[in-house]
């Protein structure tokens, strides 16, 4: 329905590319290097939006609509980004075991001089996991490109996630329903 919109997806995330395709949009992918650090004292939602905006600022104003996004996991006031190594992935998954956490994805849309950002939040509940399960998962699924060290769309999501409150696609990296509404308003 919005196939006529010329869109640039500024993301290397294969999940974001897949989700935009599933929304039946026409887009091409363009990548720029962006510093993903953020100022202290920001709330989780503000961090996700801040980084999405930083990613968007790397683009010059043009005729096409640019979409950027950033996903983070928050648990008990702590922010979990992407793990740097096996030890960090283990530590994150241990923290998330048997607990609930929140996933925030910030999205920025740019069209010429116009810029708009929004976010979505999903609560995710994990059952308790064993150290063996954590090691099996890290070894076989290598979740180093994923915030919080897991993918809801892979083995973890299908064996550990008990339930979620909110958008599933938001956890995958792009809150498609909110994004679609924002595109309709453009
Ligand atoms: C929690 C969770 C995150 N993720 C992914 C979504 C994002 O791709 C990634 C978080 O990293 P991001 O920094 O948001 O994105 P990225 O570096 O992969 O891509 P880019 O900056 O180019 O847009 O974690 C899942 O795939 N499944 C999940 O369940």
From TrEMBL:
Q: Which GO terms describe its cellular component?
A: cytoplasm
This chain is encoded by the gene named maf
Q: Which reaction does it catalyse?
A: dTTP + H2O = dTMP + diphosphate + H(+); UTP + H2O = UMP + diphosphate + H(+)
Gene3D superfamilies, A to Z: 3.90.950.10
Q: Which GO terms describe its molecular function?
A: nucleoside triphosphate diphosphatase activity
Provide the protein's localization: Cytoplasm
- Under which name does UniProt file this protein? dTTP/UTP pyrophosphatase
What species is this protein from?
Pedobacter endophyticus
Q: Where is the active site?
A: 70 (proton acceptor)
């Amino acid at each position: 329905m919005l196939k006529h919109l010329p869109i640039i997806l500024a993301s290397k995330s294969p999940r974001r590319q897949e989700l935009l395709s599933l929304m039946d949009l026409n887009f091409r992918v363009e990548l720029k290097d962006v510093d993903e650090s953020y100022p202290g004292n920001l709330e989780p939602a503000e961090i996700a939006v801040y980084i999405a905006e930083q990613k968007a600022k790397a683009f010059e104003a043009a005729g096409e609509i640019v979409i950027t996004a950033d996903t983070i996991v928050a648990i008990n006031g702590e922010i979990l980004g992407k793990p740097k190594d096996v030890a960090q992935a283990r530590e994150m998954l241990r923290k998330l075991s048997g607990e609930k956490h929140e996933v925030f994805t910030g999205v920025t849309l740019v069209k010429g001089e116009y810029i708009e950002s929004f976010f979505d939040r999903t609560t995710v509940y994990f059952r308790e996991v064993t150290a063996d399960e954590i090691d099996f998962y890290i070894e076989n699924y290598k979740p180093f490109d994923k915030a919080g060290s897991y993918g809801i769309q892979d083995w973890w999501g299908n064996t550990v996630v008990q339930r979620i409150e909110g958008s599933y696609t938001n956890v995958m990296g792009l809150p498609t329903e909110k994004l679609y509404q924002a595109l309709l308003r453009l």
